[in-house]
Amino acid sequence: MDKMPKWADVLLIPLLNLVLALVVSGLVVVLIGQDPFEAMAIMVRGAVGSTYGWGYTLYYATNFIFTGLAVAVAFHAQLFNIGGEGQAQLGSLGVALVCLFVPWPHWSLALAAAIAGGALFGAAWAAIPAYLQAKRGSHIVITTIMFNFIASALLVYLLISSLKAPGMAPETARFPEATRLPFAQDVFAAIGIDWSRSPLNVSFLVGLAACWLVWLLIWRTRLGYEIRAYGQSEPAARYAGISQVKIVMVTMLISGALAGLMGINAVMGEQQRLLQDNVLGAGFVGIAVSLMGRGHPVGVLLAAILFGALYQGGAELEFETSVPREMIVVIQALVILFTGALDNMVRDPVSRMFLRWGRRKPTPQPAGD
Amino acid sequence: MTALTKFLGAAATLALSAGAALAEPGLVIDLGGKFDKSFNESAYTGAQRWVEETGGDYMETELQSEAQREQTMRRMAERGANPVVVLGFANTSTLEKVAPDYPDTKFVIIDGVVEQPNVQSIIFSEHQGSYLVGMIAAMASETGTVSFVGGMDVPLIHKFACGYAQGAKAVNPDIEIVQNMTGTTPAAWNDPVKAGELTRAQIGQGSDVVFAAAGGSGVGVLQTAADEDILSIGVDSNQNYMHPGKVLTSMTKRVDNAVYNAFEMGEEIEPGINILGIQDDGVGYAVDEYNEELITDEMKSAVEEAMEGIASGEIEVHDYTSDDSCPVM
Predict the structure, then answer these.
(1) What's the mean pLDDT in A172-198?
(2) Residue A136 and which of A122, A129, B39, B293 are 20 to 30 A apart at CA?
(3) A99: number of CA atoms within 13 Å, CB side?
(4) Which H or E run contains B212?
(5) How many structural domains does chain A have?
(6) Quick one: pLDDT at residue A364?
(7) B71 vs A315: CB contact, 8 Å cut-off?
(8) Is residue A21 a part of any domain in this protein?
(9) Residue A142 domain-assigned?
(10) In Å, how far are A14, A287, A333 from A341, measured between CA atoms?
(11) Residue of A165, A206, A182 whose CA lies nearest to A65
(12) Is A118:A263 a contact under the CB 8 Å cutoff?
């Protein structure tokens, strides 16, 4: 056996990373004089202990599904899209424009248009760094991260000038009632289940559909094959006649569009108006989600739910105990650090362990001579 | 499926009944944190004073981001907090949407107006308090130039600036007033570095008294003023102690009293608009052991006279937010 079995790669390592992160977080909680087990219990109960908790967990997870998929798609072509944050902000703007300026008769039409608007604006924001990478060789990491700042500044400018609603806060007017997406409690009430009020809405289903479509794209289409081939080896892909410009552009456009779709959940689903920081760092969490999910839509979905639970559990922890707000950010950051950045710290020893274990076992001899 | 349904239903009922049992007041602290040495801290102090004096308990939470206002407010109401006090005008549109969903819960919003049958809106006459410190500033200034550093560029902060300018002009009609805003977004409430740079620029233009109405950013203004050896004026909380002998006075806005009273009234709190001005001790100026040497008797008598004039209606201080303009700037 020359490498780790697949189950270890997709399950064992993320789990080990998570356990490590929780142990270190536990130590931090002990250091500030709180009971780590109680804190953990509050977080778990807050995130998945009630329909209220599930509602918020899955609402946050929906954000992370979109941004996680965005990073994952780009990563298949070895493009590191750090710009999910900015693309999601622009996507939110697209969603807001669609909802504010068109009188929609029904939410389903508004949703379809908002999907188009969010995807279009997100993709457009990714197109410029993609072009610079494809044609000019400017590194995508640098350009996308800079575009985050530009997006944020652009949004602030619009929110204090042309899009600003009367009043003092920098926000747009509320969207018309017809664009309100059905919430989980409405859907569950229709089939007779009592579900607490939460911002979980039909965008979650759009997120699941996006997972399936991304799987279809990457593993079942010719374009997906080209993207993966380009990601594995650029010279080989070029030798095989795959256009570098085309792959970089198309991959980044898809990636940006996915990030932009986050706007339908956050802006159209929950806030129903455009705020200045509606993305809530989901663009960056998407990177950790994608790394932890190993770039596979199923993995992204699971990791997104985990991070959603962390966000919601963290909010509950802040509410229930005197653990300060900053400490919750520290705990969330530790999980990101261990699952994303310090991945190799666990991966190397584990893969060596498997290597040794595999060698010690007698390898079956080929029959005959 | 049915088992799951029952379980979820039971969990939801449990969550609801757990919330309804106790009615403690709740306080949602706005962005910038409870130790901003200014607006939020004043509210926190009021809540703490209520705890000390009554031995009661209250729920408190700090906002983490703009987008979580609604979740936080609903969470408070669902946990049974009553009344729920929210701080800052930025909550206005969220509360307008949340309040009707909890008709049995009373809400109090400070610095904003929400017209709902279960909301009390508390507005301070900041222009009056600013007028007083404007007078003191003009009397203390030797260069004939005073300045103002605002937080976020919103009408509320112009209300401070305009009152300050009117007070200064009332003492010295020829006085120069330099005015800058730290930013145009809520981040401007917590950017002491930029606010400090603005102060330095104002000193370059000759200012020797600077009034900071900038939430957490004001810390940078007061620090720079102390470093550059000019006088500063604090806001909301009494900030005189921060740089003894360098802070001329503070325009106190008694958010602490407002929170205290709201907690004290509990569920009985009256809906409607509650305006707190000089006559209600809602706004004023601070004199304590840290600045008593800076405040001369002449200043004191002039300001006391003005306070009476404002209270009786003899002096009318223009409120910027009434028509979005300032007659003297």
Answers:
(1) 90
(2) A122
(3) 33
(4) strand B209-213
(5) 1
(6) 55
(7) yes
(8) no
(9) yes
(10) 12, 10, 11
(11) A206
(12) yes
Partner-chain contact B184 A156, CB within 8 Å = yes
For chain A, the average pLDDT equals 89
Residue with tokens 């009476």: B308
CATH of B127-252+283-323, one of 3.30.70.920, 2.130.10.10, 1.10.630.10, 3.40.50.2300: 3.40.50.2300
**How many Å apart are CA B210 and CA B237, to the nearest integer?**
16
Q: Which residues of B touch A278 (CB under 8 A)?
A: 66-67
Chain A residues in contact with B151 (beta carbon < 8 A): none
The interface predicted TM-score (ipTM) is 0.71
Q: Is there a contact between B8 and A193 if contact means CB atoms under 8 Å apart? A: yes
A174 and B75 within 8 Å at the Cβ level: the answer is no
Dig out the tokens for A84 from the structure: 């999910």
Positions in chain B whose pLDDT score sits under 50: 1-21
Is the C-alpha dihedral spanning A135, A140, A146, A148 positive or negative? positive
Rounded to 5°, angle at Cα A295 from A151 and A281 = 30
Q: Which residue of B has its CA nearest to A160?
A: B184
The per-residue pLDDT for B10 is 46
Question: Is B109:B121 a contact under the CB 8 Å cutoff?
Answer: yes
pTM: 0.81
- Cα–Cα dist B214/B236, whole Å: 10
The two tokens of residue A362 are 């007698």
Query: Residues of B with CB below 8 A from A149's CB?
Result: none
Tell me whether residue A103 is in a domain. yes
Nearest Cα to Cα of residue B188 among B220, B217, B219: B217
Q: Report residue B291 as tokens.
A: 């600045």
Nearest C-alpha in A relative to B155: A168
Q: Give domain status of residue A334, yes or no.
A: no
Owner of token pair 């080209």: A226
CATH of the domain at A242: 1.10.3470
Residue A291: pLDDT band with limits 50, 70, 90 = confident
- Specify the pLDDT at position A354: 85
pLDDT at A358: 73
B16 CB neighbours in chain A (<8 A) are 196
Confidence at A341, pLDDT banded by 50, 70, 90 = confident
B228-247 tens-digit pLDDT: 999 999 999 899 999 999 99
